[in-house]
């Protein structure tokens, strides 16, 4: 645990600078302890529960950080006014506005209103009903939950929550009850949708953080400041993808490709790899196309909504004027005409009523379009953005994998060239020795080579030539390094020691040996990393594919539900209007006409 | 000028034209009308000879003579029946707007006390804009002209006019018109008089007319408001229809997007398709409703406004006659007072004047007697004039009251028919949409 705690403090680029740092990092790992497989979650849980902070500490934290939500002095309940609206709608036998996409919601948000949290602070709380228990959470808590989930589960498409209310609005209009009701209502719907969508994803449902969120016993602030959230690594690429709070030391050695890194094209791919890549590519294309389609869709929904509202307003006015018209429809009110006038008046009044019904149902329709079309569409595009994040993570992971792979290959090639040079040298030495036995001249030269100080001049030429060579190779190598840097992005392992990679035959025996040993050690670690990454990548691929698959199934289901709901409300609207007009028609039929 | 017989159109197309269906409720209504008139099929005509530029639009008028026994109109029925083979025959003629204007002018001048239904505006703006052959313009005018003719045919006096009969049935109308056109002098007298008296008000307004005036103002106000708002409603409905159109486009994209894939995708795709069909139907339906509202119902409302305006004009004319009478009456009273003063000897106010005359050496007594006799003849003629004026005013008032009642009848009938048409149109739309969407819902 202490190791993990330390690692949390670590920079995500621990090997920046010197080339030796990673070696020391590896050395710090005791043999056989680089087990990165997540330990039991309950283990963490128990430690968290033991680590309950004191009340005063929490209060400090809360007051210190909590400035986002507006504080209302009056304790009015939004739900009260909402109730009226509800009854108004239910009176028309319509789907209640709180009823959302899911018919069988496991989690409901039953109420939203000002509440005073346990520290005496006012905020707008959303009462969640789950499993027979009630939990009140506020928007900022939902926000932090989602944020935590995003980091805890990088391979899962986390359902979106409504966007943050622009802070500036609080300054302009601190608390307008009417406006707030709309915003709060919208949030209520969308937050309930978020919770249910999350609940339907097994990875989230079973996650301890999510469970704690729905547990009335838990104080959210302390959940946030305790593991696993508190020990999240700052870079998920340097952690096991399915459980980022348990990075092995090996994970810290991984390169972290920059977020701008493009696709790392590789030439060697087996069929399964190719299939996978194609699959992900397909998903990416699909996401883009969906996004492209959703944007105008959302715009049209918004437009239709506002036009319908405008129509409803005009119809309301029209209905009022028809009513006025019905009262003043005749010029002469002679007694004998009274019955006719009355009939005509009733007829006109009925038309007015029909228009009123038209107005009310159009108004309701526009509300429904907001909650049944506009909001789900918005949610969908948020989902798309989320999915893109997950795909990006996978891509980076893949790049990471390729970088390590490439580095291993490079290192191995270097070892090979060093070893072959060594072999060549020993062959050469052997040949020289054999020749020296024959030729005294050669023996003398060998002798001079072994004791360079004695033969200053030739040694110097050798040295200088070696230096020149070294310089030349250095230039060449930096050039190559530069290239490789571009290709790999900033990576640690591929960061080849600039001064060291010299043409193998220009190194001394010892230097070669030393480098081979070092490289072998490095390659060993790299192989370990690679093994780790292979497993990670497989997990990421698996999990991401599953999540995306689930997402598209969900979205398809969403469309179905949207269409079903839309058809129902449109039908309701049409039927109501039809009924009203038929009534009007019948009354008009009774208008008798004076002959 | 082409004669109606020259027009290359099948007369039978008139009553069978699509517009007929919306009119049916009105025609079938249990009204004792002897003429059923349908104006339809506006056609652009090119003046083929001299003035190539002066094209115009003709409207087809189909007149059906009702067979319902109606003793009051028996003569007329027979009269028309003589011309046609069967009493139920539909007579089809073609007239242009200026023909309607002629009819209107003649009727107005022949029946000054009648509230002659108004014609649609000349719409000078459209002439300038060159839009007068546009579909929407001619359709609206067509409907308005029909309202005009129907109103006349409902009017007990105007419907008996020979001019109307000629207009509706004669194939020699063009010749008739040509002979008339030069001789017709616009009679604008009443209007200018009415303008002169614009600032005078009637002193003794009868209660009935006070009420009528007040109510016609209110009616006018309401109808014009409704007209205005309906205009807005039409605009909004069109916008929504557009929205649904775009929506449908987006759905098509969605359909494409989910079409390539597994079985479940295919099922979704089919559902999107069904849904989209419903949406486009809704879009078309809304557009049709808007068109109907724009071309017919709003025209009805506009015509109603104009008709009410005419009522107000006629009442103004009545007022003017009354003002004439009241002025005369005032004058008479004044003269009688003057005479009385002279007879009694001392015209209190004329004391200084008489003194002056005395000083001037005028024989006061002679002058007085002279004056009295002058006044007496004046009073005599004034009295008859006042009596005449009163008779005229009263007669006019009675006429106008009768006219207002006739207007009431026509208005009620018209409102009924236009409201019925409106309701029918709405019911048709909603019924169709309910059917469509019930199917859509089942398909989902």
Description:
- The complex is a heterodimer of chains A (595) and B (444).
- Chain A is mostly helical and 595 residues long.
- Chain A has 2 domains: 1-30 and 81-232, Phox-like domain (PX Domain, 2-Layer Sandwich); 247-449 and 493-595, Arfaptin homology (AH) domain/BAR domain (Substrate Binding Domain Of Dnak, Chain:A, Domain 2), CATH 1.20.1270.
- Helices cover 67% and strands 4% of the residues of chain A.
- Chain A contains 17 helices and 3 strands.
- Chain A has helices at 2-9, 21-28, 41-50, 55-65, 78-91, 139-152, 167-172, 177-199, 202-205, 208-213, 220-224, 249-252, 271-327, 338-438, 440-450, 456-488, 509-589, and strands at residues 108-116, 122-130, 133-138.
- A 3-stranded antiparallel β-sheet of chain A has the order 1-2-3.
- In chain A, α13 (271-327) packs antiparallel against α14 and α14 packs antiparallel against α17.
- Mean pLDDT of chain A is 70; it is low at 1-102 and 454-499.
- With 444 residues, chain B is mainly α.
- Chain B folds into 2 domains: 5-185, PX Domain; 187-444, Substrate Binding Domain Of Dnak, Chain:A, Domain 2 (Up-down Bundle), CATH 1.20.1270.
- Helices cover 70% and strands 6% of the residues of chain B.
- Chain B contains 13 helices and 3 strands, in the order ααββαβαααααααααα.
- A 3-stranded antiparallel β-sheet of chain B has the order 1-2-3.
- Chain B is elongated and about 125 Å long.
- The two termini of chain B are 60 Å apart.
- The chains are: A mainly alpha (595), B mainly alpha (444).
- At the A-B interface, α13, α14 and α17 of A face α10, α11 and α13 of B.
What key phrases describe this protein's structure?
heterodimer; A: mainly alpha; PX Domain; Substrate Binding Domain Of Dnak, Chain:A, Domain 2; 2 domains; 3-stranded antiparallel β-sheet; 17 helices; 3 strands; B: mainly alpha
């Amino acid at each position: 645990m202490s190791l993990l705690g330390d690692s949390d403090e670590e920079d995500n680029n621990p090997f920046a600078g010197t080339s030796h740092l990673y070696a020391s990092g590896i050395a710090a790992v005791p043999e056989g302890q680089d087990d990165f497989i997540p330990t039991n979650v309950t283990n963490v849980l128990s430690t968290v529960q033991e680590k309950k902070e004191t009340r005063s500490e929490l209060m400090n934290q809360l007051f210190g950080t909590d400035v986002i939500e507006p504080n209302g002095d009056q304790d009015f309940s939004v739900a009260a006014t909402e109730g009226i609206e509800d009854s108004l709608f239910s009176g028309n036998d319509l789907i209640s506005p709180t009823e959302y996409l899911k018919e069988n919601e496991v989690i409901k948000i039953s109420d939203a209103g000002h509440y005073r949290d346990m520290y005496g602070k006012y905020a707008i709380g959303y009462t969640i009903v789950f499993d027979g228990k009630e939990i009140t959470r506020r928007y900022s808590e939902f926000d932090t939950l989602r944020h935590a989930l995003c980091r805890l589960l990088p391979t899962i498409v986390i359902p979106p929550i409504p966007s943050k209310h622009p802070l500036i609005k609080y300054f302009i209009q601190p608390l307008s009850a009417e406006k707030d009701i709309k915003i709060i209502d919208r949030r209520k719907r969308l937050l309930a949708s978020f919770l249910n969508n999350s609940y339907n994803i097994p990875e989230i449902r079973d996650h301890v953080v999510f469970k704690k969120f729905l547990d009335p016993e838990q104080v959210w602030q302390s959940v946030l400041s305790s593991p696993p959230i508190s020990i999240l690594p700052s870079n998920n690429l340097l952690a096991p993808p399915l459980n980022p709070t348990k990075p092995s030391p090996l994970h810290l050695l991984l390169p972290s490709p920059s977020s701008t890194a493009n696709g790392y094209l590789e030439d060697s791919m087996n069929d399964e790899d190719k299939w996978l890549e194609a699959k992900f590519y397909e998903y990416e294309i699909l996401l883009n196309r969906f996004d492209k389609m959703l944007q105008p869709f959302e715009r049209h929904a918004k437009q239709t909504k506002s036009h319908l509202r405008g129509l409803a307003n005009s119809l309301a006015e029209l209905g009022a004027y028809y009513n006025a018209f019905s009262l003043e429809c005749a010029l002469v009110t002679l007694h004998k005409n009274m019955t006719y006038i009355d009939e005509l008046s009733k007829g006109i009044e009925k038309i007015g009523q029909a228009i009123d019904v038209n107005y009310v149902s159009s108004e309701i329709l526009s509300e429904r379009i907001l909650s049944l079309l506009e909001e789900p569409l918005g949610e969908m595009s948020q989902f798309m953005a989320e999915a893109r994040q997950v795909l990006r993570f996978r891509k980076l992971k893949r790049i990471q994998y390729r970088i390590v792979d490439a580095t291993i290959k490079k290192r191995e090639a270097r070892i090979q060239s060093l070893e072959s040079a060594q072999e060549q040298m020993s062959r050469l030495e052997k040949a020289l020795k054999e020749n020296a036995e024959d030729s005294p001249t050669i023996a003398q030269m060998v002798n001079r080579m072994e004791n360079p100080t004695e033969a200053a001049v030739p040694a110097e030429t050798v040295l200088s030539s070696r230096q020149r060579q070294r310089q030349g190779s250095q230039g060449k190598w930096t050039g190559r390094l530069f290239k490789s840097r571009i290709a790999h992005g900033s990576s640690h392992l591929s960061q080849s020691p600039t001064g060291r990679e010299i043409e193998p035959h220009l190194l001394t025996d010892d230097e070669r040996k030393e480098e081979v040993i070092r490289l072998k050690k490095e390659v060993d670690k790299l192989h370990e990393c690679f093994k780790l990454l292979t497993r990670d990548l497989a997990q990421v691929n698996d999990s991401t594919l599953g999540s995306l698959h689930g997402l598209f199934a969900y979205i398809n289901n969403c469309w179905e539900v949207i269409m079903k709901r839309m058809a129902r409300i449109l039908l309701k609207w049409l039927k109501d209007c039809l009924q009203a007009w038929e009534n009007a028609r019948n009354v008009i039929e009774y208008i008798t006409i004076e002959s | 000028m082409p004669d109606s017989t020259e027009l290359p159109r099948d007369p039978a197309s008139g009553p069978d034209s699509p517009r007929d269906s919306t009119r049916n409720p009105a025609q079938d209504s249990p009204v004792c009308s002897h003429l059923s008139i349908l104006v339809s099929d506006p056609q652009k005509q090119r003046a083929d000879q001299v003035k190539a530029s002066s094209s115009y639009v003709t409207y087809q008028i189909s007149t059906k003579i009702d067979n319902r026994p109606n003793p009051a109109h028996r003569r007329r029925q027979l009269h028309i029946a003589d011309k046609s083979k069967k009493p139920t025959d539909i007579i089809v003629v073609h007239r242009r707007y200026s023909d309607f204007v002629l009819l209107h002018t003649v009727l107005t001048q022949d029946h000054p006390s009648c509230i002659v239904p108004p014609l649609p505006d000349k719409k000078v703006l459209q002439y300038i804009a060159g839009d007068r052959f546009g579909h929407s313009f001619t359709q609206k005018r067509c409907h308005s002209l029909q309202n005009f003719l129907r109103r006349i045919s409902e009017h007990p006096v105007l419907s008996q006019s020979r001019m109307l009969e000629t207009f509706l049935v004669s194939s020699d109308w063009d010749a008739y018109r040509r002979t008339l056109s030069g001789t017709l002098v616009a009679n604008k007298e009443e209007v200018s008089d009415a303008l002169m008296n614009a600032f005078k008000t009637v002193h003794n307004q009868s209660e009935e007319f006070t009420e009528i005036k007040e109510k016609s103002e209110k009616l006018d106000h309401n109808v014009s408001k409704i007209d205005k708002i309906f205009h807005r409603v039409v605009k909004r409905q069109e916008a929504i229809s557009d929205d649904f159109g775009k929506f449908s486009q987006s759905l098509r994209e969605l359909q494409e997007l989910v079409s390539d894939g597994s079985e479940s995708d295919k099922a979704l795709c089919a559902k999107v398709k069904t849904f989209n069909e419903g949406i486009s139907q809704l879009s078309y339906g809304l557009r049709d409703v808007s068109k109907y509202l724009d071309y017919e119902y709003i025209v009805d409302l506009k015509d109603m406004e104009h008709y009410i305006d005419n009522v107000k004009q006629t009442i103004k004319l009545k007022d003017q006659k009354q003002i004439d009478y009241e002025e005369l009456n005032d004058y008479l009273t004044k003269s009688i007072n003057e005479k009385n003063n002279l007879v009694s000897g001392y015209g209190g106010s004329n004391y200084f004047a008489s003194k002056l005359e005395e000083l001037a050496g005028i024989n006061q007594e002679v002058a007085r007697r002279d004056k009295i006799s002058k006044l007496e003849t004046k009073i005599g003629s004034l009295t008859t004039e006042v009596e005449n004026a009163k008779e005229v005013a009263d007669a006019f008032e009675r006429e106008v009251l009768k006219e207002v009642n006739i207007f009431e009848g026509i208005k009620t009938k018209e409102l009924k028919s236009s409201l019925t048409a409106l309701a029918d149109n709405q019911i048709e739309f909603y019924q169709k949409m309910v059917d469509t969407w019930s199917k859509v819902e089942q398909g989902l």
